[in-house]
Hints:
single chain, Arc Repressor Mutant, subunit A, 2 domains, 6-stranded antiparallel sheet, 8 strands, about 40% helix, about 20% strand
Amino acid sequence: MDKIKPVRAMLRVLDVLQVLNSRNGVTVTDVANAIDLPRTTAYRVLETLCSAGYAVRDGSDDRYRLTVLVRGLSDGYDDEAWIGDVAQPLLGELGRKLVWPVSISTNQGNVMLVRHTTDKHSPLALERYSAGVRLPLLNSASGRTYLAFSPAPQRAALLDIALGSGGEMEGAGRQRDVIERLLAGIRKSGYAVSIRQYRGESTAAVPVYAGSALLGVVGMRFMDKAVTETVFANRYLPDLKEAAREIGETYLDWKASSQPQGLDQMPTSRWDWTLERRVEH
């Protein structure tokens, strides 16, 4: 069967929805720059979403925001319900304790997907991200942590994908042995840190296990001028690891009580080849 050519207009709408979902309000210019659209096209898409009721233009700051109607788009989608039942309450407690924004991410093939974040409740968040943001495997603390602690066969497959998916790392970073040494160091220390140079913002992440199964990673974003890696390791890392442990243990209890007849429904990885634009996190 011949491959069906995608509808470009629909892809643009989906891209705009993703930008709206990842930020607390956007301008036409924000959208145009984020997904490489002409401003006139970005404006038409945004106004179309407003006409359909999925977005609204705030007259106070001239920014577009999603409306509650978008929740209807996820009706019937029940993938990884444990995020809301298990991870969200524990992340809320962790966020209130650490103050810095914290999040949980799971793997989706060649990216990490942010499932829940406390950005909206953290006064220290430089940018307020939402669930649904995708992070690169090699250039994010979350991705590197997941790679480092994945079983060897899965790690090899994910590296094959990451190194062939647009060149996230250039020069020596693309050499497989260099990456393997980096991941070995992360396994030894128990966490990964990445720095967004232009923002002065760092992210650290630790793995989340349910028994021997790697569920995902828990991360914390912070200003590197306020929190050095040494300060993070001494003051925040123990709490981050403890929260990851609690999430894993609570997940096992949740699974045992909620899955019918012992049916194994561990989170499944979904492979998403469509998104080319990624956020460093």
